[in-house]
Amino acid sequence: MDAALQLLRERGPQGVTMEAVALQSGCAKTTIYRRYRNRYELLRASLGFVEGIPEPPPDLSTRQRLHFLLGQFRQGLEEVVGLRALAALLRGDDDDPEFSRAFRESVLQPRIDVLLTALQEGIAVGDLRPDIDCPTVVSMLAGSFIARSAMQGTVPADWADTVLDTLWPAVAA
C-alpha cells in the first residue's frame, strides 16, 4: 500500500499498476494478486489509509475546529495522495473510473463529511447562522484549495486562515 501511494504521488493514478507496485515494493506480482483481486481493490485499500481523519481536540471553537479540519484536508491531498491524483480526478475525462471512484470514496467524501458535521455542530451550538447552506460552504472551503492549487501550482501556508477570514463574516451567527 505504501508503494501504491508513493507511485500515486509521483506518477499519478495511471502510474499505479500491479506491475509498478510489485517493482516499487519488491514483492512478487502474484503476492499482490493474492491480497487484491484487481487494481481497484489495491487502490481502495491504499487510499483507505487516508480515510482516517484525526478528530480535533474537543475544546476547540467552531472556527478552530474548521481550521484543524482544513489542515487535515490539505495534508491528505498534498502529502498523502499528492496533487497529481487530484488533477487526474479534475480532468473530467474519467479515463480511470476505478481510481476516480476510490478517490471520491476514500479521500474526498470522508473530508467533506467531517467538514459538514463541523458546520452542523457549529449551527447547533449557535456559533453559525442557522440558515447557511452547509454543502455550499463546504464546496467553497474545499474549492478554494483546489482552485489555488490549479491556478498557482501551490497553496499558500496561510490558506486555511485566509479562507476562514473571508467566509467567517458570512456564516457566523
Automatic annotation (TrEMBL):
Manganese found in the keyword field: no
PROSITE patterns in the cross-refs: HTH_TETR_2
What InterPro entries does the record tag this protein with?
Answer: Homeodomain-like_sf, HTH-type_TetR-like_transc_reg, HTH_TetR, Tet_transcr_reg_TetR-rel_C_sf, TetR_C
Q: Please tell me whether the keyword Transferase is annotated for this protein.
A: no
Task: List the keywords (alphabetical).
Answer: DNA-binding, Transcription, Transcription regulation
Say which domain of life the source belongs to. Bacteria
Which residues, as ranges, make up the DNA-binding region of this protein?
Answer: 17-36
The HTH tetR-type domain is annotated at 1-54
| UniProt protein name | TetR/AcrR family transcriptional regulator
**Organism annotation:** Streptomyces xantholiticus
